[in-house]
Amino acid sequence: MQRLAIVGAQWGDEGKGKVVNYFSKDFEWIVRFSGGANAGHTIYVDGKKYVNHLLPSIQPRNASRGFLGAGMVIDVEQLINEFETLEADFPGISCRFYIDPEAFAVLPWHKEEDVLLETMRKEPIGTTGRGIGPSYTDKVSREGLKLYTLFDENLLRERLESIYHMKQNIYNNRLTVSPEDMFKYLQKLRGELERLKVNFTSAVDMSRVFRSTSVLFEGAQGVLLDLDFGTYPFVTSGACMAHGVSSVGFSTFELDSVYGVLKAYTTRVGAGPFPTEDFTETGEKIREIGKEYGATTGRPRRVGWLDLPALRYARIRSGLTGFVITKGDVLNGLEEVKVCVAYDVDGVVKEVPSTSYDFFRAKPIYETVKGWPTTDHINFLKYMTFIERETGVEIDYISYGPKTEEMKTRNDLIINI
Description:
The longest helix is centred in the middle third of the chain and has 18 residues, at 153-170.
């Protein structure tokens, strides 16, 4: 049975949600294996826009089902809001989703902490304020709350009292929600999930099911925001690479393919190194045409040229076997397009960063290629071929618009030319 992982090949916001939604028609299970509500996956169904922050990007009109894995940190209130949005147009769809009770909960306390910590930092890291970092911190420090705790009232009260005691000592009694109010809040959310008939099932129980059918693994953010190998500390707090499928009980060796999604240019949200950032009117024009504003926060994204050293780094780190390129149409009409082909790192030319530290010291070395009037033009095909030659990874699919069906294969492009 086919198993495909789709991850972001840059700093996130590459259009993974639409890409996953396109491929999901061929898979029975769509699995989110990491991340939280700090990034949005935008999909279109019958011309209507949906932004999922937590839910896997399943096809509402077919029989595909979604699974939220233990590597996620889940804001249950946000999750319910997403269910309700889909239920309004697709009644009963919530019962097609399964949640691993081993996943961790993002609490209102975590959101308070997120804001407090950002104000305490000498150099803010650009957090979204959604509580993701503090929830992952609690997970690692063994102070977190797993979702199965919601179904054991005595254990839930005990854990909330313990967590609250510690946090109030750390933050000098600045948290505003009492343990009892938190208990009532979580019990209400549990009741909402039960009303919606959402399933709670572990990856252990699903192991045979997943291995007897087709599974599409949906990553969060992008490789360069991965906690271990991204531009630390300007990263997210979870796994953004294909190895994150281990949280659902899979090995990367069990994957048939790993697709990296990349834009024809590069964007980044928040602080941190960005070697190819463009501060000219061209960068501003690309931002406006590409509607480069965060799906979660609305923040304007930083815009730059395509970064091949970063893509080579992503290929190695996440074992990418194919690319899906998006937003080539945003660059339509430019006479010339710049591409970063290497870095100057302290006087040494590098085609691939050795460590994430190289991104902080990198000075881009550019080449210029001819632009294209449309993505059906020979110059866009040449641009793709240039990327393939430089990275060693073929571009199998091209996205040319926001709608799910606005996808074509490389062969489609060649025929149109």
